[in-house]
Structures are given as C-alpha cells and as structure tokens.
From TrEMBL:
PANTHER family: ABC TRANSPORTER SUBSTRATE-BINDING PROTEIN
Span of domain ABC transporter substrate-binding protein PnrA-like: 33-312
Gene Ontology cellular component list: plasma membrane
Protein name: BMP family ABC transporter substrate-binding protein
Record bears the keyword Disulfide bond: no
Keywords tagged on the record: Signal
One Pfam family matching this protein: Bmp
Sequence intervals crossing the membrane: none
Superkingdom per UniProt: Bacteria
Amino acid sequence: MKKGILLALLLVMAFSASAFALAPIKLEDQKPVFIYVGPVADGGYNYMHDLGRQAMEKANPGVKGSIVESVPEGPDAERVMETAIRNGAKVVYANSFGYMDHVINVAKKYPDVYFNHCSGYKVAPNASTYFGRMYQPRYLSGIVAGKATKSNLIGFVAAYPIPEVIRGINAFTLGVRKVNPQAKVKVVWIYTWHDPAKEKEATKALFDAKCDTIAMHADTGGAPQAAEELGMWVVGYNYPMDKYAPTRHLVTPVWNWGKYYDYSTKAIANGTWKSQQVWWSMKDGMVDLSKFGKDVKEDTKKLVAAEKQKILDGKWDVFTGPIKGQDGKVVVPQGKKLSDGEMLSMNWFVEGVEGTIPK
C-alpha cells in the first residue's frame, strides 16, 4: 500500500467542515442536477441512480431534478456542471469516480452550491462524498458463487483497476473461498464502465478459460447476457440481473441510491447538511442482495443469511483477519480489521485471485 495515498486518505477523512455552514435551500428551490457517466437505459449502474433520484423526488414533493447522461470523466464534466448551475441548479450530484477533481474545481467557483460526489475521497466545505459498503453484499454473493461452481473457476469482468473495484473483487473472493477453498477467481480488465460489447467479449474469454460462473463490476447487462447464452452462472451487479440472465442468475449485489439522495435533500432543506464522507452499509440500507435465483439451494441461502446477520449485528466485517494476499502471505493478521482508509486505498489482491493489478 502506498503510504502517500493512505496518508492523503486519512487526512481527507479527518477533514471536518463543522465550522462552515451553507444556507438552507427550500425543497422547491434546490433544482438538483444529476450527472451520469452513462445512459439511464444501461439497465445497471446509471439506471439504479435514476431510480434513486425518482424515489427522492417522490419522498420530497416540490423537488424537481434534471439529469445529464453519458458525461465523460474529463474536463467536459466541469462545463456540464457549470451550465446546470447557471440554469438554476443549487445542488449537484456527480455519480462516477472520475468526476472527483472536476467536482472540487467547480465547487471552489460556486461556494453557495451543494456538491455531492459518488465514490471519491476528496471533499471541500461545500462538497461531500457518498458511497456504500458494497464489499459486504459482494462477500455474500461470493458465497453463492462458490457453492454454485463445478469447475472451481469463476470469472470476474472488471472495469478499472481502482480501489473500489479491487475491494469488490477481494470481498467476493473471500466469500467464494469461505465455502470453496479450491476455487479461484480470474479477473479480466475491460477499462470502461459502459461497453456492452466489451463486457460480452470478456465473458466469452472467461468461458474459454473454463470458468463456469461470472461476477462483474461493469455498468450494463452485457456480461450476464453473454453468460446466459453460454450457460454460465451469473452473479450480477447494480440491478437484479435476472432480466438479462433469466435462467442462469444466482444473485446480485444491489444499490439503493435513494437513501442518500433523500437524506441529502432533507438535510439541505433543514440546514443540517455538512461536508462529510458518507460510506453507508447494509445496515443503513444503502446496499443489499437481490432475491436469489431459483437454482440457489436452501443450505446456501441459510449460510448467506447467517453471515449477513453477523455483519448487520456489527459482530464481524468482511476484511477481518486472518487474510492472505495473492502470494499466500498473511496481509491482515488474526483479529485485526482493516481501517476505512486501508479499504479505500486497497491496491492488492487476496489469495485465490488470478490476475494482476496494472500500475
């Protein structure tokens, strides 16, 4: 783990904006804009964000948001945010990691506007981050996959080699190996959040490598569709993927973004919003598992329920030692639990993962 990255994260997380207060904004005056990295019609990541937006508006009559879809993670994001602000937006939600620096840049220019950035780690007096502990349902879904595989080879279609994705792969693998120590998880990087064709190609490559089950960190239903055609078991992501793999879907770790959007909207209206790093858990309702597919066995469901209850009770969390790294050496000793800073800067694989993390 790079000490500089960890130090930066810890400094960010120690940031407190308690002395800085933004003026409350009435519901009808907030006019939030939602900046999406892909199209709402992706049936996955962006679709779930938009369901959260809709739930927020339903719970807060008077709020009417707008959306801008398929905004690249680059300087153009700043233009999109500034245009929305000039058109009356008082609240900005940017839903992808790559918007981070651009959110901070625009937040400096508009100190009276509220900014909310999904999955990043940089904050400002008028900019918060929000995310969920997706590694928790990832771990539980790994148990399901580990029970389902017959080849003991499980593929993982992965977007980018950043801590968020690496953390999910590791948590999933820990779940797989809890019930099936012989199983391995093969990672294929596709270097995009949204490209159904690439997601399908990666799935086919994993099938050719003898994987009989896949999991994913990508935004669409491309990988599950390919897996359905090839007869592979599917662990989805974002939105229940039985829509794309009706006969092969096992379970999906899912988001409930409306939890944060509702919280933020109300806090802005009543003057309690503050700059912070929100990282909510299954207990908070931000993340969870979908319904199980018809082929998941009862003993697997019971084991998942028991492990989930341990997490909900706060008795245990996924990255608690002993945990071995990819080389078989202990990385997290017995009884030690990784800190949030260590999880948020994760740049190593656990034992059982086949693949490399590009520099």
